[in-house]
Amino acid sequence: MIFVTVGAQMHFDRLIRVIDEWAAERGRSDVFAQVGPSEYTARCIETVRSLDPAAFRARAERATALVAHAGMGTILTALELGKPLLVFPRDFERRETRNDHQVATARHFADSGRVLAAFDEQELRRRLDEVESFHPSAKIGREASQELVARIRAFVAG
Predict the structure, then answer these.
(1) What pLDDT, in 10s, does the model give residues 76-92?
(2) Contacts of 124 (CB under 8 A, 6+ apart)
(3) Where do the domains of the chain lie?
């Protein structure tokens, strides 16, 4: 199962639309998405608006791969679990976020080999075909050092 999440604060209909279309094209019936306050109605993927933390964690643990906006909560969860993650950062110019911090986050973690990243819809479609076979360069584990977590948080804070 591929688990897709957009976070809880804003919708990210562009991501959900592409994944829904990709799932239809590939005949995938095993895609589950947390879509936030979405205005897009998916045809081929199962969706919910939100998940409590325990349900989110359970979905992530069962998933063969995760796809998400470039939010740190999802990135840290995927790294902790050693799960393949494809990030698609929100775009400031499209008013999907307040600034382009997710682009820098996506580039940083992709350059380190920890996630796959896509920066436009065409690249997202290609990467969706690769995500389940992607092997992150390292997982951080539940007992990640406080130093590593602090470095990640410092990077995000900018």
Answers:
(1) 899 889 999 999 997 75
(2) 15, 18, 19, 86, 88, 118
(3) 2-157
